[in-house]
Amino acid sequence: MRPPSPSIPEKEFLFSALKQGLRLDGREFFETRPVTLTFGPELGWVECSLGQTRVLAQVDAKMIKPPPERPFEGVISIHSEISPMASSEFELGRPSEEEVTITRMLDKVIRRSDVVDKESLCILAGQRVWHLRLNVHCLSDSGNLLDCACLAGIVALKHFRRPDVEVIGEEVTVHHPTSRAPIPLSLHHNLYCFTFAFFSDTSIHPVLDPNHLEQRLNGGLISIALNAHRELCVVQKSGGVPLEPADVLRIVNVAVQKAKDLDVIVESRLREDWEGRKVEVR
Amino acid sequence: MTIVLPGERAPARHVNLKLGPGLFQNSNASTSTGRAAPSIFATRAGTLNHSSNGSKWWIESNARRYVPAAQESVIGVVVQKQGEGFRLDIGTAHSANLDGLAFEGATKRNKPNLKVGSLIYGRISLAHKDMEPELECFDAQSRKSEGFGELKGGFLVRCSLRLCRQLLDPKYFLLPLLGSLFPLEIAVGLNGRVWISSQDAKRTIAIAQAIEAADPDAQGMDEDGIRTLLEDLGRK
Questions:
Q1: In 10 A of CB A161, how many CB atoms?
Q2: Interatomic CA distance for residues B125 and B138, integer angstroms
Q3: Which one, A43, A55, A274, B13, has the greatest CB density within 10 A?
Q4: Closest CA to B98 of B120, B116, B117, B115
Q5: A189 in Cβ contact with A229 (< 8 Å)
Q6: Which residues touch A65 (CB under 8 Å, ≥6 apart)?
Q7: Cβ–Cβ < 8 Å for B67, B163
Q8: Do B201 and A7 touch (CB under 8 A)?
Q9: Which part of the chain is the K Homology domain (chain B) (predicted)?
């Protein structure tokens, strides 16, 4: 049984509060919840939380024979799992609309936007390439699972380091991380996703990073994926609310600033973590 | 105070023994061995507590999923109108039934008109493991509404089950603290839902944030923490 939509008092209160310029968690309209990144003992293991929304992402790599049509490129696969653990709204075996959106958006943001340089994953043309597997587990849903999952996925790829390999002729030697320092993946850019919620009542200002109730009651969502250099990669709109072109441009500008801020946080957290890991090379 | 796990035997023994939440008497075992050894088992993990004379025993724990128990007051959302009554979501595995006549002064002609999505504050009149829970919106003794019924306006906050039990404790700091700052109306459902209402949206948001911050599942703020949080909100 799916839980019912929010009750009438909740709906009325949310709309009246938003009309008065108040959000339920005391944020500004274009303010995200605080981002926390926790790194695990392994490289490529990241837990990302956006307020109470939490997502775990983990990357591992193995060697495979490349498909014959693309002999010079590595393979990336994304496995996202949204189980009833995240929220009782999700059911096993029956993907909801939101679940499908998240899976497709993750694919667009991480795989099809060419974040990872696939050719750098090639070891021996036509023989051996790296296969990166990104596992995304949604641990708790308190709204805006998509942005949190995208952020976790990108940070996990940035955090991950693959073992060093040496190719002599046809022979491939994989060096254990203890003997040679593992190598970070070559990423083209850092892509961040931001979701804005619009409401059917046009007098209500759009909100960034909708919380659970705002996400349930929105009239339309726009997800924008872009990097800190103002390069727009994905724009996705869902829901039926019509929007003016000026509105879209305005929120893109907001997203640019947010991407710059987020980039600083991500880079500093990654540096902190890397310095905390004493990698001794003898 | 001892910590017990499900299946563990509790040392509860009294002539007039009353078992609270989380404890269960294995009737099969007590009949086979006679009255001398009634075996009491824990059905959930938590701390085992008893009253000073040892007649009342219960287990205190925290959870998010509500399991109905008779005579507890809960807040439900109407999901469906069904013939004479309504089906309510009270956060349990199964939806609860509320009879259209289970209101103060309700007759066949004069029944409350509830819409899908209305909030109801009611008392669980029937909680059986093999049946759907049933609700009533009047006091069992006086048959008056006593605050039960539809909750209009206001806002609904969700919290952990431990916090909503604590909110009902008169010694718990949160509600006296909020009440000393401004007038408010509150209805605490034991199913982890708290309905709040105050003069304006700003204050209601402040109450909602205070309740969420005090939740042991989230930050578990103490009295001083909540006080500074409310001061910060007041400045905005």
A1: 18
A2: 10
A3: A55
A4: B120
A5: yes
A6: A127, A128, A129
A7: no
A8: no
A9: 154-201
Q: Are B106 and B85 in contact (CB under 8 A)?
A: no
Q: Could you tell me if A242 lies within 8 Å of chain B, comparing CB atoms? A: no
pLDDT digits (tens, 9 = 90+) for B36-66: 556 889 999 999 999 988 889 999 999 888 9
| Structure confidence by residue, pLDDT tens digits, A183-209 | 999 999 999 999 999 998 888 999 999
Distance from CA of B117 to the nearest CA of A (A): 4
Question: Do residues B126 and B134 touch, judged by C-beta distance below 8 A?
Answer: yes
Interchain CB distance below 8 Å, A8 and B205: no
What residues form DSSP beta bridges with B199? none
Distance CA A246, CA A250 (A): 6
What residues of chain A lie within 8 A of the CB of B218, using their CB? 52
In B, what residues contact A, Cβ < 8 A? 77, 79, 89, 95, 115-119, 151-156, 195, 201-202, 204-205, 208-209, 218, 233, 236
3-state SS of chain A: helix, strand, coil percent to 5? 30, 30, 40
Among B65, B77, B212, pick the best mutation site for testing chain A contact (most A Cβ within 10 A).
Answer: B77
Question: Can you read off the two tokens belonging to residue B179?
Answer: 């009440």
Predicted complex ipTM: 0.87
For residue A21, the tally of other CB atoms under 10 A from its CB is 11
Contact (CB<8Å) A8/B118: yes
User: Which residues in chain A touch residue B79, judged by CB atoms under 8 angstroms apart?
Assistant: 4
**In 3-state terms, chain B is what percent helix, strand and coil (to 5)?**
20, 35, 45
Beta bridge partner(s), residue B77: B89, B119
Residue B134 predicted with pLDDT over 70:
yes
Q: Assign B202 to helix, strand or coil.
A: helix
End-to-end CA distance of chain A: 59
- Name the closest residue on chain B to residue A12, using Cα atoms: B153
Chain B contact for A4 (CB, 8 A cutoff): yes
Q: Which CATH class is domain A20-276?
A: alpha beta
Domains of chain B: 2-60 (2.40.50.100), 73-151 (2.40.50.140), 155-235 (3.30.1370.10)
- And the tokens for A89? 């709204």
Q: A52 — contact with chain B (CB < 8 Å)?
A: yes
> Does position A159 have pLDDT exceeding 90, yes or no?
yes
